[in-house]
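Treating backbone geometry as a discrete language has practical consequences that deserve illustration. In the encoding step, the backbone of a single protein was reduced to a row of integers, each denoting a local shape. The amino acid sequence and the backbone structure tokens for this protein are reproduced below.
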Amino acid sequence: MVEVSTSILTVKKGEEAETFFALEKAKTDYFHIDVMDGKFVEKDTYKKMMEYASYIKRISNLPLDIHLMTENVQKSIEDFLVVEPNIITFHLEACKNKEEVLKYINYIKENNCKVGISIKPNTKIEEIYEFLPYIHMVLVMTVEPGKGGQTLLSDMIKKIEKLREYVNNNKIEVDIEADGGINLKNHNLVKKAGANILVAGTAILTAINYENIIEELKKD
């Protein structure tokens, strides 16, 4: 069954407790934490996401799905390990070379945390193939990272299909997470392509009933 990771990027200050409890009750599988530094992407959500992640850790047992959109990957990993996340995902594009990618993979694993690698829309999927045996998840960005409420780029469906085919053919156990512009109109395309974790923010948080949307997104 497909899992749902709800992006809390647009949760308003003062409505955190109410929203987080409602999302848990609505059976989201993860809280998706979009960490941006204002350098790797334009927006800066670093402080806000640290506050939200720390708060969720105090009030909920649901796993934290940390997505680092940051230049200083090492520092970001160190900062967010404090909230004991289920998984930390960093961007391939933030790394200088293969050695650096492997260093971060090992560092996250050594701290009893799952590890994911994310790629932007312009990065070829083949660039992560060599790292697949060492990680738990690939996060395919289906929009340009850094902003909420964007429209899913249809070309990314093919990228997910290609990754799923490669993973299956090589018998690699890895989750495929899709993030960006996912809603009730396109979620079936993303799932059919091979993603088994869907990140949704706007589609869930603007709905009157979170549970109905999450249930629809999870349906086979």
About this structure: The first strand starts at residue 3 and ends at 7. The longest helix spans residues 155-169.
